[in-house]
């Protein structure tokens, strides 16, 4: 009986030892698990866990910890590389950039261009911008997200023009805003200089578009005088002289309107009989059409069609389009142009159609861009100005064209 008690005591001692050992082992694993969790929390992936026996539960757990550390270390390295790459790219840009948290104003990123342009080596919060550069701060805060605006502000380079753009994005934690400040002073100065040089060519081009047919018509009238046949020629001379007088006055009006086109709020709208408008244009261009052997059809189903527009400006648009059409059909033996007008759903359309060379698809969107031209001697302003005149009439101009088959320009009022 005593022996049983001894064995029981020994068994109990062994059981206590095993329990203590098990507790100590699990306590060690728990501490290791806590340490791993702390390391993950503070992004410390340098810790290595010693694996004595990879087949045991402890060995498998420590192996998994080491593998997770390796993966996070690779992610951390890749993230750091991307961060440095992005930092280099942003700092290489000439545009000033600031990136901050919308709720608390904490600045996450400011590139070198911003620091240099506004003399700010450090900016921790967007509110600090108000103390250092109140004008810039106010313009930044009033800029709506997704919008852009041009502003003049003081900088390290003096008073400059800035194009300010803003965008935002949202993460799970917060909303962030990115503001880009682009110094457009130099670009604008260069563009303005080029524009002034081209403006001289523009005026010459547009004036010549009217002077050339006037000169041709005058020469025709002079020929009639040399072979004067009496009353019949007098009527032709009167019509020709009247056309020259009216077009000359229109040309003067056009030159003034072109010079002030940005200041003109509304064109001088008057009722215009489209039939009479077409007749005047044909009389003006007739010598050129005959000389270049171009057939023209004037199609007007409703001869009473009346258009409310500025007669001189609209006449200039149609003349410009007609001259372009004449140039487009010059290589065709069967050169043909039609000038037509119709009413579609209560709105008047004037169409100038030709069977010329056509316009490549990739260029059709660009032909109304200022100074874009495919002609060797062109200035690239005729169509731009035509579009501006149509916009002043609250209308538009568009083109349908197929390369090799011709083009149709439509004035939609």
Report what the structure shows.
With 413 residues, this protein is of the alpha+beta class. It contains ten helices and twelve strands. The chain has helices at residues 2-41, 57-92, 112-117, 128-132, 134-142, 185-226, 231-259, 274-291, 311-328, 382-392; strands spanning 96-101, 107-110, 148-155, 158-170, 175-183, 270-273, 295-300, 306-309, 336-344, 347-354, 396-402, 406-412. It has a five-stranded antiparallel beta sheet. The chain has a five-stranded mixed beta sheet with strand order 7-9-10-12-11. A two-stranded antiparallel sheet has the order 6-8.
Helix content, binned percent: 40-55%
Overall mean pLDDT stands at 78
Give me the CATH superfamily of the largest domain.
Answer: Histidine kinase-like ATPase, C-terminal domain
Number of strands: 12
- Spell the H/E element sequence: HHEEHHHEEEHHEHEEHEEHEE
> How far apart lie the N and C ends?
120 Å
Structural class: alpha+beta
Strand order of the largest sheet: 2-1-5-4-3
> Beta fraction of the residues?
15-25%
Number of domains: 3
The Rg value, from CA coordinates, equals 40 Å
CATH architecture of the largest domain: 2-Layer Sandwich
| Main sheet record | 5 strands, antiparallel
**CATH class group of the largest domain:** Alpha Beta
Low-confidence stretches: none
Could you say which overall geometry the principal axes of the C-alpha atoms support? Answer: elongated
Question: What name is given to the CATH topology of the largest domain?
Answer: Heat Shock Protein 90
Number of helices: 10
